Amino acid sequence: MADTRQRLIDGAIETIRTQGLTGTTARSIAATAGVNQALVFYHFGSVHDLLQAACLAATRSRVEPFAERLEQVTDLRQLLAAGRALHTEERARGNVMVLAQLLAGAQTDPALAEATSAALQLWITPIEAALTRLLAGSPVAELVDTAGLARAVSAGFVGLELYEGVDPAGAQSALDALDRLAVLIEVVDDLGPIAVRALRAKLRKTARNSR
C-alpha cells in the first residue's frame, strides 16, 4: 500500500518533469508509475491532492540532506558553495523544470500555491538557521532581518535556476556577485574594535534615516 502511494508521488513528479503540468493527468501519472489509474483516486482523492502531496514529499526528500550539509558550513562562502552545489544537482535532476511548473500553476491555484509555499518554506528554514549561526556576533547582524534574508537567498536561487535556462552567463555573474558579498562581510568581521564600533554607529544611523 505504502509502496503504491510512493510510486504515485514519484510518478507525479516525473510526469511534471517530462510532460509539464498541463500534461499531468491521472492517466499519465498512472502510466508513469505503472499502476492502475483508479489508484490515484483511491490513495489521494484527486490529481490535485496528489500534486500537493508530491510537491511536499519531493521537496522534503531533497531538503533533508541539504540541511545536514548546511550544519557543517562555517562561513558564508561555504554556505554559498553549498547553494551552488545544490543548484547544479537540482538542474541535473530536472527539478528546476518541476519547480517552474508548480510555481506557474500556483499563480492561479490557491491550494497549489499553499502547498508550493510550504515546500519553499522547507528550504528557507535551514537557510535561516545557518545564516543566524554564521552572522552571530557580526556587526552586520544587528541590522539584518535574517528571516527576510533567508527568503531573499532562497528566492534568488529559485530565480537563478530559471534564469540560467535563458542566460547562463548572467546567472553565473549573479552567483559571483553573491560570492563577493560574502567576502565583503568577512572583511567587515575582521575589522578592529574601533572600526567595528564606528561601522555599527554608521549602520544604525543609516537604518534610522531610512525609516
Care to describe what's here?
There is one protein chain. By secondary structure, the chain is mainly α. It has one domain: Orthogonal Bundle (Tetracycline Repressor, domain 2). It is 82% helix and 0% strand. The chain is built from 10 helices and no strands. Helix 5 packs antiparallel against helix 9 (168-189). The longest helix has 26 residues, at 110-135. The chain starts with a helix and ends with a helix. The model has no long low-confidence stretch (mean pLDDT 82).
CATH class: Mainly Alpha
Number of helices: 10
Structural class: mainly alpha
Query: Per DSSP, what share of the residues sits in E-state strands of 2 or more residues?
Result: under 5%
The H/E string reads HHHHHHHHHH
Q: What is the global morphology?
A: elongated
Per the CATH scheme, the topology name is Tetracycline Repressor, domain 2
What profile does the largest beta sheet have?
none
**Assembly state here?**
single chain
Query: How far is the N terminus from the C terminus?
Result: 57 Å
Please give the radius of gyration in angstroms: 21 Å
Assign the CATH architecture: Orthogonal Bundle
In round numbers, the mean pLDDT is: 82
As residue ranges, the low-confidence spans are: none
Helix-residue proportion: over 70%
Give the domain tally.
1
